[in-house]
Design a protein that fits this description.
heterodimer; A: 115 residues; mainly beta; 0% helix; 56% strand; B: 113 residues
Chain lengths: 115, 113
């Protein structure tokens, strides 16, 4: 298995809803990432988990709450989002935390629309 | 602060043409450089990773070069095909071997049949 699987592919939610994005990989990678990508812009790093521990939070608002229950699974819990949070959310993984030394494998993304 | 620039922003070529995409970065003390491909509305696919000690990496019709001293990398695509149409992004670590990557804005490539 050489894939990062993200669900759902599309999500529409209201500003008062609570929803979650899910990411799964079975490549034995120990670092997992959440990126946010707005239209026609490059991806922006949000969070990095290394060995199931949060190692980087790029000053992301608390309405985004990451969780790494085990080495294969990464969640992003969403609550009280704003319309400007609408974007493509990308999950990625790599062998270890030093992503600069390892190839990043990205999922297909979850397209989020906040009404 | 590391900044990555990609030129041109968009490129349209006829099928079969060889082409070069450019990437430049401001801080030459990079650990490595990666080239990615992104199809519309999809995730990124890693194409090539060049370590700082390397000058070139090849994969099929793709060849990436790295010149650290001048802060430049090029992605050469030989005999382009319509299936190569996508946005190509380059990325470098913000510092050292950091897991934080800085991406360029990408070059949108269209290969016309």
């Amino acid at each position: 298995d050489t894939e990062v699987t993200q669900t759902p592919k599309h999500l529409v939610m209201g500003m008062t809803n609570k929803k979650s994005l899910k990411c799964e990989q079975h490549m034995g990678h120990r670092a997992m990432y959440w990126y946010k990508q707005k239209a026609k812009k490059p991806p922006e790093l949000m969070f990095v988990y290394s060995y199931e521990k949060l190692s980087i939070n790029e000053s992301v608002p608390s309405r985004f709450s990451p969780e790494c229950p085990n080495s294969s699974l990464l969640n992003l819990h969403l609550h009280a989002l704003q319309p400007e949070d609408s974007a493509l959310y990308l999950c990625a993984s790599s062998l270890s935390r030093t992503a600069g030394a390892n190839v990043l494998t990205f999922g297909a993304g979850s397209r989020l629309t906040v009404l | 602060k590391q900044e990555v620039t990609q030129i041109p922003a968009a490129l349209s070529v006829p099928e079969g043409e060889n082409l070069v995409l450019n990437c430049s970065f401001t801080d030459s003390a990079i650990y490595n450089l990666q080239w990615f491909r992104q199809d519309p509305g999809k995730g990124l696919t890693s194409l090539l990773l060049i370590q700082s000690s390397q000058r070139e990496q090849t994969s099929g019709r793709l060849n990436a070069s790295l010149d650290k001293s001048s802060g430049r990398s090029t992605l050469y695509i030989a005999a382009s095909q319509p299936g190569d149409s996508a946005t190509y992004l380059c990325a470098v670590p913000t510092q050292g071997g950091s897991e934080k990557l800085v991406f360029g804005k990408g070059t949108k490539l269209t290969v016309n049949p």
